[in-house]
């Protein structure tokens, strides 16, 4: 909670104050998680999931309260991505089998380009009309009703 939510809130607070005080427009992007979407909780993840829900709400309220200063905010909710943190998990033999059976696009993402392309768009002026949104980047893994085994 301290790192995921409080840390993000403090950084957002001071960056937004600086943007507001200097009259500059800007974009805040909170990296949440599909765990924050309430689409399938797992035991033992209460602090993690709660902090990720908080990041989504934080982005929406920044957009709502600071839009008058041309400060935009959005949240990105990634699914399971190959990264330094998940490296050991992604090396497991069974993980690809799980993706093939439960993820509609049958794969796990990599941070580049799946996440970085979206971040580049959201910080660019071409997204100046985009604020207060939640972007899900998970190959369809969090879709409600995704079957574990297809009947088709």
TrEMBL record:
It holds the Pfam family adh_short_C2. InterPro entries: NAD(P)-bd_dom_sf (IPR036291), Sc_DH/Rdtase_CS (IPR020904), SDR_fam (IPR002347). Coiled coil: none annotated. It comes from the Eukaryota. PANTHER family: BETA-KETOACYL-ACP REDUCTASE-LIKE PROTEIN-RELATED (PTHR44375:SF2). This is Uncharacterized protein. It comes from Kalanchoe fedtschenkoi (Lavender scallops). The lineage of its organism: Eukaryota, Viridiplantae, Streptophyta, Embryophyta, Tracheophyta.
């Amino acid at each position: 909670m301290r790192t995921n939510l409080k840390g993000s809130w403090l950084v957002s607070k001071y960056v937004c104050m600086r943007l507001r005080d200097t009259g500059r427009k800007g974009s805040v992007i909170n990296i949440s998680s599909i765990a924050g979407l309430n689409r399938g909780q797992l035991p033992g993840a209460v602090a993690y999931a709660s902090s990720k829900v908080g990041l989504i709400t934080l982005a929406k309220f920044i957009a709502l309260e600071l839009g008058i200063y041309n400060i935009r905010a959005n949240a990105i909710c990634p699914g399971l991505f190959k990264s330094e943190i998940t490296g050991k998990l992604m090396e497991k033999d069974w993980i690809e089998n799980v993706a093939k059976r439960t993820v509609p696009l049958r794969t796990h993402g990599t941070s580049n380009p799946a996440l970085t392309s979206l971040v580049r768009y959201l910080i660019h002026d071409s997204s100046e009309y985009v604020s207060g949104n939640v972007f899900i980047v998970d190959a369809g893994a969090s879709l409600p009703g995704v079957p574990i085994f297809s009947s088709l």
